[in-house]
Design brief:
Helix content: under 10%
CATH architecture of the largest domain: Sandwich
Number of strands: 30
CATH topology of the largest domain: Jelly Rolls
CATH class of the largest domain: Mainly Beta
Number of domains: 3
Shape: globular
Radius of gyration: 24 Å
Number of helices: 1
Strand content: over 45%
Length: about 425
């Protein structure tokens, strides 16, 4: 039988931090907070296709105030659209759809797809503003904006939330505070911010910032900057031309010095004097750990299966786990292991989580029948960890380096937290070596 394990990088794995676009328009053409009677569709909304169980619910999962629009799980299957009333465009062509949402997934994937669609002709033709496979991960609660241009001469618009596939394969999709707006003239927003979370001192590093234009007018008179958490400018780049609704990717180069070795935060920011909404010009902080020169990087495992049980189980207040990595999976030996890194996704920030980690080696090739005696393991970390919202790489610098000698590597993790947390998974792969 194949076993699932959570792969870790002994030192480095490329990091990516996601920021969702959020903007405020200058004129609201339609809004809905779904403050309607629960247990039924919002007034004027129509369900077309498979009878997925859309209704107004008394929850507040999407980030607004109860009630909200809610799609629960059912045995419905196929294509369905929940379609809004007709919205008058009143001469507007450049548009922004803004909403809050949270999709909480289920641990199976039959190829389901979700989408946000619009139509200008009563449903004869649909244009997708957002389409993505549901997969196995959640869409953490956030506010999202989608920019689009109506065809010339369009006088009306309808919005639809689309679900394709087996409705049993999600737990829920919650939506609230929906707006259709005309954008302002000048509004640049930060998007994806990505790069190594474990850069090496003395080595040039590349960080990528996505800039999106949420303003009607094309822009190029701006700059993008990379800062340390204390506001020190690390890198700058000239803005590239970007039209309404388009994305442009900027490269920010930075060489950490030996003075930077250790934990630090970095962030990216757009400098744009004309911006009418400068509050969306900065990314959230990305936690990084600058490594000394000469570090060797080892990645264990290749896969994308989310697990909520290894190395930390947040569904329970306390968790105690062991993972086993075979020598052929580690690939090298005779070196001091100075840090571990896990890829994970959390639906909310969790700060100051007490964690203890122990490492060791064993001749035992499987944990299916017996765990490794904890007394034979070496303590390497005892402290607190911060788990950031979204899809991240979590680097853990060890208090005590562990010299790996080529055996079956054991990682034992002990975690405590004051409350039960859902939406906390670690990205894992199939172990093809252990039985």
């Amino acid at each position: 039988m194949k076993k699932l394990f959570t792969p870790f990088a002994a030192l480095l794995m490329a990091g990516m931090f996601f920021t969702h676009y959020y903007a405020v328009g200058q004129e609201v053409l339609y809004s809905n907070h779904f403050d309607d009677p629960t247990g039924q569709l919002p007034p004027g909304w129509v369900l077309d296709g498979a009878q997925a169980p859309w209704s107004v619910a008394s929850s507040a999962m999407a980030g607004g105030e109860a009630p909200e629009l809610f799609l629960g799980f059912s045995f419905a299957s196929g294509l369905s659209r929940l379609i809004s009333p007709v919205i008058s465009l009143d001469g507007h062509q450049a548009l922004c759809l803004r909403l809050k949402q949270y999709l909480f997934n289920y641990e199976m994937d039959y190829g389901e797809i979700i989408g946000v669609d619009v139509t200008y002709d009563g449903g004869e033709n649909w244009v997708d503003l957002m389409e993505m496979p549901v997969g196995l991960l959640n869409i953490p609660q956030d506010e999202f904006s989608y920019y689009f241009t109506a065809p010339q001469g369009s006088t009306e618009l309808q919005v639809a939330f689309r679900f394709e596939g087996n409705n049993y394969a999600i737990n829920f999709w919650a939506i609230d505070d929906l707006f259709v707006e005309s954008p302002v003239d000048h509004d640049l927003l930060t998007g994806y911010f990505s790069g190594s979370t474990t850069p090496e001192a003395g080595g040039e590093q590349l960080y990528l910032l996505e800039v999106k234009n949420g303003g009607v007018l094309a822009q190029q008179d701006y700059t993008v900057n990379l800062f340390s958490g204390d506001g020190t400018l690390l890198s700058t780049a000239a803005g590239l031309p970007v039209a309404f609704g388009e994305k442009m990717y900027h490269l920010l180069w930075w060489t950490p010095s030996t003075d930077n070795i250790g934990s630090m935060d970095i962030y990216a920011e757009i400098e744009f004097a004309q911006d009418q909404h400068p509050d969306n010009n900065r990314t959230a902080n990305l936690a990084i750990y600058v490594q000394p020169a000469g570090i060797e990087y080892v990645q264990i495992g290749n896969g994308s299966h989310p697990l909520n049980s290894l190395p930390c189980n947040f569904f329970n207040l306390h968790s105690y786990t062991q993972s086993l990595y075979l020598p052929e999976e580690v690939g090298v030996s005779g070196f001091p292991l100075t840090g571990l890194q896990y890829t994970c996704q959390f639906d909310a920030d969790l700060m100051d989580v007490p964690v203890q980690i122990y490492l060791g080696e064993t001749a035992q090739s499987s944990l299916a029948d017996n765990w490794i005696n904890p007394a034979t393991l070496t303590p390497v970390f005892n402290g607190t960890l911060d788990f950031s919202k979204g899809f991240n790489n979590l680097y853990i610098p060890l208090d005590n380096p562990y010299t790996y000698n080529g055996g079956n590597l054991v990682v034992q993790t002990v975690k405590s937290y004051s409350e039960m947390v859902v939406g906390a998974v670690f990205i894992s792969s199939i172990d093809t070596g252990a039985s």
